[in-house]
Design a protein that fits this description.
By secondary structure, this protein is α/β, with parallel strands linked by helices. The chain has one domain: TIM Barrel, CATH 3.20.20. Helices cover 34% and strands 10% of the residues. The protein has 14 helices and eight strands. Helix 2 packs parallel to helix 3, helix 4 packs parallel to helix 8 and helix 11 packs across helix 14. Bound molecules: 2-acetamido-2-deoxy-beta-D-glucopyranose (7 copies). The site of one 2-acetamido-2-deoxy-beta-D-glucopyranose has 6 residues, from loops.
């Protein structure tokens, strides 16, 4: 009997971890500033499930903090809202505000476990220790005044603290990761973090990759290249913790914000991810109530979708790397040059890869909505993803100046804004990075060759 129950338990765990969760990122504060409370989270979680054409599949939430602002360490009210709406949770611990805040984050989580028990812990699918701290700590992040980050050794130490704190709780086996930009993941100096995590969270924004050709037509290639270099550099499961395209905002090199291109990005990238990779889109709503300068929300201030979310007429562009394309049989190569190194958000000089091959365009296999929203993901092995910013408490030393609001507020942390980093070759200079870069270049050549062959046929 015991043997049987152990086996069943193992199967249950396996099936949970293999699930390709789908949801949005939820900051701890509204775009207009105030800290979110229970009714705000409840309304958003309900809204996500009711989005027209999505069959209720957006039922997971990535949070950036465990702390309800403005308290010191009370559990964030999103937990109760998640319990009431059966929303799964990718938890986040804000790590760029120092040890005291991390200690409070852990305290808030332990309080939640004690207060809600399994009603809460059964919903937790992962936990990210940190969000873009390494990007903010990088040359590019500093040049871009992205706010205070953290050193890799510090993040690794926090991961260690979290594992210890959870060791005797129902969350002792929760997969722990860290969320950052691909430029951080290919930077060999951040190895301590890669070694410490169970999964890798990838935040990718072709819109912000302004040092490379980044029109909407280039976006699929940029997205998948970021995914591939991250997977190759870390060797761990990659979870898509943030990606999206703004409905409004200024031009970033060739990228133009707008509902039309946001729709294209959703159809080509979103519809290729949903159900096939663990994905938390950025984001449900940020016109709350007034749209920020760069607005990523899929719904407007009246909670109405800006574009068609059904994937019905979409032509998803899967990963051009055969192995990483979970579903789709037609390997389409997405067209366009992909950048691999660049400034991401901005401002780092990156090399301009003039040698970057560019591939022809390609079409990809259309996938139906059922594929997009329900397929269990053919291969679950590559799907990690994850989190974003908390906002919260206002107790802290606030030192940050970052933009949006996802971080816990007291910490000064930033809110959730997407980092604009992604581009860079950030890793330049490091042998390991160069290896990654050249590997990418090689793969692009191979992809191009395939594309050419395909067209010749
Ligand atoms: C690589 O990572 C280290 C540690 O996070 C950081 O100090 C450094 O600036 C990064 N390198 C680049 C080029 O950003
Ligand atoms: C890349 O960074 C450099 C240096 O900061 C900046 O001058 C340039 O405009 C950036 N390029 C893009 C596309 O943002
Ligand atoms: C790349 O470099 C070439 C030659 O140096 C230059 O003409 C081109 O404008 C650069 N492209 C970008 C995107 O910087
Ligand atoms: C994809 O899934 C199939 C079936 O489970 C498995 O045989 C194959 O090895 C997987 N491929 C990858 C790359 O994980
Ligand atoms: C980074 O800085 C550049 C110029 O300094 C700016 O144009 C860009 O918007 C910044 N990116 C982000 C994400 O803030
Ligand atoms: C490159 O990697 C080496 C070893 O991993 C590290 O010591 C060095 O600081 C890194 N350089 C940069 C610029 O990140
Ligand atoms: C995970 C993944 O798809 N990695 C691929 C990235 O690109 C290189 C070069 O083509 C491949 O060798 C990797 O398999």
């Amino acid at each position: 009997m015991l043997g049987k129950s152990v086996v069943l338990a193992a199967l249950a765990v396996a099936s949970v971890s293999a699930e390709n969760y789908l949801g949005f990122n939820y900051g701890a504060s509204k775009a207009s500033g105030p800290v979110k409370v229970y009714t705000d989270f409840k309304e958003e979680f309900d809204l996500a499930r009711k989005l027209a054409g999505t069959q209720g599949r957006f039922n997971s939430a990535r949070l950036y903090t465990n702390i309800q602002g403005p308290s010191k360490d009370d559990p964030i009210s999103a937990f109760q809202a998640a319990i009431d709406t059966k929303t799964t949770l990718l938890l986040g611990i804000w790590c760029s505000a120092g040890q005291e805040i991390v200690t409070n984050e852990i305290s808030a989580l332990i309080k939640a476990i004690n207060q809600y028990g399994t009603k809460f812990t059964d919903l937790v699918v992962g936990l990210s220790v940190g969000s873009e701290d390494l990007y903010r700590n990088s040359v590019m992040g500093i040049e871009n005044k992205s706010g205070i980050g953290a050193q890799p050794s510090q993040i690794a130490e926090y991961i260690n603290q979290v594992r210890k704190a959870l060791a005797s709780t129902p969350l002792k086996s929760v997969p722990i990761g860290h969320v950052d930009t691909w430029t951080a993941w290919v930077n060999g100096t951040n190895k301590a973090v890669i070694d410490a995590v169970d999964w890798i969270g990838s935040d990718a924004y072709p819109y912000f990759q302004s040092t490379m050709p980044n029109s909407i037509e280039d976006a699929p290639k940029l997205f998948w290249e970021a995914y591939n270099v991250t997977a190759a550099a870390t060797g761990k499961e990659v979870w898509i913790t943030e990606t999206g395209w703004p409905v409004q905002g200024k031009d970033m090199n060739l990228a133009k914000a707008g509902a039309k291109d946001a729709q294209t990005y959703w159809n080509e990238i979103g519809c290729a991810l949903f159900g096939n990779y663990k994905t938390w889109w950025y984001m449900l709503r940020d016109a709350d109530p007034t749209p920020p300068e760069t607005e990523f929300g899929v719904v407007d201030a009246n909670l109405k979708p800006y574009y068609d979310l059904s994937c019905k007429n979409a032509k998803p562009v899967p990963s051009p790397v055969a192995n990483s394309t979970p579903s789709s049989s037609s390997a389409a190569s997405s067209g366009k040059p992909s950048p691999t190194g660049t400034n991401s958000s901005g401002n780092t000089p990156s090399k301009n890869a003039s040698s970057r091959p560019n591939s022809g365009s390609s079409t990809s296999a259309p996938s139906s909505i059922s594929t997009a929203y329900s397929s269990p993901g053919s291969n679950t092995s590559r799907t990690p993803n994850s989190n974003d910013a908390p906002s919260g408490p206002s107790n802290s030393p606030g030192t940050y100046s970052v933009e949006p609001s996802s971080a816990p507020s007291g910490t000064g942390a930033a809110a959730a804004k997407p980092a604009q980093t992604t581009g860079a070759e950030g890793a330049s200079g490091n042998a390991s990075n160069s290896a990654v870069s050249s590997g990418v270049a090689m793969s692009l050549v191979a992809i191009n060759a395939v594309a050419v062959a395909f067209f010749l046929l």
